[in-house]
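User: Please predict structures.

Assistant: First:
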Amino acid sequence: MAARGRGAAVRWSAVGALVAALVALPSLLGALPATDTGVSAAGLRAAVLASDEVGFSGYAVSAGGLSLPVTDQLTSVADLFSDRTSMRVWWRGPADHRVDVLTATGETGTHRDALGTWTWEYESATARRTVPGPLELPAPPDLLPSTLGARLLSEASADELSRVGARRVAGRDGLGLRVVPAARASSVERVDVWVDGDSGLPLQVEVFAKGSARAALDTRFLDLELAVPDAEVTAFSPPESAGLREDGGFDLVAAARQITGPALPLTLAGLDRRPVEGLPRGLAVYGRGVTLLAVVPAPGRLAGELRRALHASPGAVVDELGVRASVGPLGLMVVDRPGGRPYVLTGTVTTEALAAAAADMPELGGRP
């Protein structure tokens, strides 16, 4: 009996050691030295921009340290950038993919097709359909390192790019590409993108605010398979028993259509206005690449909620222009003028840039 007991203990010890090794495997792979190549910064950027049709599946995690002001209408956006978001992704292309956000209480799936997006909430068995617009609030697919990395690199100029070595990400060699924005208004110190040398897919993206050594946003793949998923995995049709509802989110474009008065200027805070098809005169986006500034008309309720939240933010500035604050690299400002309509300035710009933009804004009219 004693001999058999000792044999069982040895066998279970071996099983325990194997389990421990499997659990530690991802961190061990990440600790392995990465192999760099001689690819230039321009060449690596070109590889990223050519990777949008690469099919893959995997598991990604985004960690945001931005404690954004929360409002009833923008809670989901605040959650994306202030919490840890775990995502399972199947990607056949920009117009055919699925991203499931996994939480302790369940899952929410985002299915993109050629005509729009289905959002499926598993626990409530509720489906919501949305169609693409000229300007949309961030959604989980926008936080994937592959999506975010490509967008942030898409408009970077050659003098803003440099190589920064290599590291292991998701068991693959990630080649480092750094963006240091040139715009004086930018609140971003740098963006580091770690790129798979074989496919050009960004494996990890880190965004650093000026004056901070810790990333304000870090999104990375923990597991990645480079193969096109089956079409039935990304496709979605609501079950007959599902509840259907229209998108009840804050419609930026609808609010902007109510604006009257002079057109928004061509330049704000030293940033040029972007030509975005379909935007009404009361809404505009300025800047390029990493440095962006949006002018958003705010209905009375939203303006009031944001105003109260900003007042409570550390370091908030309140003056005759309104109330403004910075949360990491993100600046937010509610502008109020006597007799005018409130509006919000927000983007990856400094609070000084927000104040300069507010001072140059024309009077906005329209229904509050």
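Second:
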Amino acid sequence: MSKQRNQPRKKKWFQRKRIWIPLLFIALLFLGNSSYLAKEPEGEPFLLAHRGMAQTFHMENITNGTCTAERIYPPEHPHLENTIPSMQAAFDAGADVVELDVQWTKDNRFAVFHDWTLDCRTNGTGVTRDYTLAELQQLDIGYHYTADEGKTFPFRGKGIGMMPSLDDVLQTFPNHSLLIHIKSNDPLEGKALADVLATLPAKRLAQLSVYGGDEPIETLKQQLPQLRVMSIATMKSCLIPYIAAGWSGYVPQACAHTQLHIPDQIAPWLWGWPNRFMARMEAKDTRVILVAGSGEVSQGFDVPNDLKRVPESFTGGIWTNRIDLIGPAFHENVEK
């Protein structure tokens, strides 16, 4: 009889065990990845100015083939993207890092210019790499910018000779941090850029990072392993294993000494966001840049109110297309 009486009790105990063990695991999982009990990272976030101080444009129905120069907002400042004056203005406005685009030229130089063709922005035509650097520097890079569907062109005639080379930028800003964007997927561009950057001292190289297509970035990484780089492939090799096993605190070796661009709509789904995630990445010498939206286009934190979406404990980079607005607002908040 006693055995029969104990059987229901054992059954209930096993049923409770099946419930409490998963609940305990979930609780430990939450505590191990919660920022509430984690120490806040030390340091302040930094500002990354996309293309320097640039003219912005509306994003509706934008595609990779959209000519953004033909849809700019009415200009609020006199600068054109990817020029020396725009970069200087960005640093003056509070940028810690300036992002710039490079295109390979016919004479194996790097011009600082966004598009792989010339027709959208300049008074030239054809493919950028079919021209020498000297030929490109004779163009008017502000020729086709318009805010009223072609009725007026506020920068026409003002962009002649304004396209710098990468060498010009490195010489002009020898002590500033730069993020260089290779706009192609040509591995030869990765080799060419590695040859340029290999001449720089280690201290200067530590102030630079490069992102772009998978193939040039892989080539660059092989030749200059000490350089911080990023591509879609490097992002996946870090984040996919982290999403799978990061709940345990595991950080893949692929994350080490790299750069991650994390959309703020996706960031909260990463294990340990923000405090534990940032601490884990900093331990791997990984730089985290927070971009706006879902990551589909180059959205940034572009009006002061956007800064409210940045966690107070975040210590990575904040991507902005409007450093002229965000820089003063950000530094005012820091001083408070």
